[in-house]
Design brief:
eleven-stranded mixed beta sheet, 23% strand, five-stranded antiparallel beta sheet, 349 residues, 11 helices, alpha/beta, 16 strands, TIM Barrel
């Protein structure tokens, strides 16, 4: 009995000491802060996919010729035209892309865009006839055998059309799922605070009820309309991911990251693929620096009296960002866009 009392006393003292140390050092619980599922994810390679622009299919095909890690690609083969009709984009390399993906067992999930024109989606959502026509055309598209699904990349939706867009996506999902295909919806990044107005027409929680995946474009934090800076800063990435985890089921979250950079020079801002960024840095013997807070790279150069500043992501910076996301339990990533990227990105595991 005395031994039991002594043991209980020692164990109680131990718990008191642990509680004191926990409070002293700010720990709420004496447990690992990393969910168990995260350990399993970190033991698996990340799942990668990439969009293919209809104006960059030659470069995409070159990448596909080398690539062995992509699970899927989303060529931007369809769009809402100026009349808000669902039509096919003009492209010349569709058969080559199909052949590459078939040979390497890469899924094709074509994207439907609106060319960043919010009026096209507004006109669609305001017309029952246009929605009916869209759904009928979509049914024919999803009948295509080689397609594993469809990606809706409809951007800059007005906030007052948020509910209408959610209902529209639900209608689209029913058609796509009837064909036993998958639906992804691409959305602008946001954090739930002081968000860009173009992102307010997308209700992540509602969209996730219908779609199989929500692809969040965590890029263009700095862009052609801003001063120079990181396209995907680490702190912003973390905030977007935290908000996503609050709105979307974990298994449906896909984080989209950039394979490109921007060159700010005078009044002009130019988007550059990584191959051109490397060439530019070599041409001007630029001193490439890693900005530690955002964990993005940049360099400066001068030409014809004009100062230029280039910000970009490469294998090193993207690996850091990908691991930040994976530690949150998310393991699916998409990239804009395939072709001309840092080839070492596909070595990230």
């Amino acid at each position: 009995m005395r031994k039991f009392v002594l043991f209980s006393l020692i164990f109680t003292i131990f718990l008191v000491v642990i509680s004191y140390l926990s409070n002293l050092f700010g720990f709420k619980q004496f447990i690992s802060p990393v969910p168990e599922s995260t350990y399993l994810i970190m033991d698996m390679p990340p799942e990668f996919g990439a969009w293919i622009s209809y104006w960059g299919e030659d470069l995409a095909n070159e990448s596909l010729d080398r690539n062995t890690v992509l699970k899927s690609v989303s060529p931007v083969w369809y769009k809402l035209d100026e009349y808000s009709d669902l039509v096919k984009n003009d492209q010349t390399k569709e058969e080559e892309i199909r052949q590459h993906t078939q040979d390497k067992k890469i899924l094709i999930i074509p994207s439907i865009s609106n060319d960043l024109d919010g009026t096209r989606i507004s006109k669609l959502l305001e017309s029952k006839d246009k929605i009916t026509k869209f759904i009928q055309t979509l049914g024919k598209i999803t009948d295509t055998e080689v397609y594993a699904g469809v990606d809706l990349d409809l951007e800059t939706i007005e906030e007052n059309q948020k509910d209408a867009f959610s209902l529209f996506v639900d209608q689209v999902a029913k058609v796509v799922h009837q064909k036993n295909k998958a639906l992804s919806v691409t959305v602008h990044s946001k954090t739930g605070k002081n968000d860009w107005e173009g992102s307010l027409g997308q209700d992540w929680k509602k969209l996730a009820e219908s779609a199989d995946e929500i692809r969040i474009m965590v890029y263009d934090y700095h862009n052609s309309a801003t001063s120079p800076g990181s396209i995907t800063p680490n702190n912003y990435l973390k905030d977007v991911v935290d908000y996503a985890l609050d709105q979307i089921p974990l298994e449906k979250i896909v984080i989209a990251l950039p394979l490109y950079g921007y060159d700010w020079g005078g009044e002009e801002v130019v988007s550059l693929i990584f191959e051109d960024i490397e060439s530019l840095a070599n041409q001007f013997s630029a001193d490439i620096k890693l900005e530690p807070r955002t964990h993005s790279k940049y360099f400066k150069y001068e030409i014809d009296g004009v100062d230029h500043e280039v910000w970009f992501e490469d294998k090193e910076t993207l690996e850091k960002k990908i691991n930040i996301v994976r530690l949150k339990g998310i393991n699916k990533f998409y990239f804009w866009k395939l072709g001309g990227e840092d080839r070492r990105v596909w070595e990230i595991n």
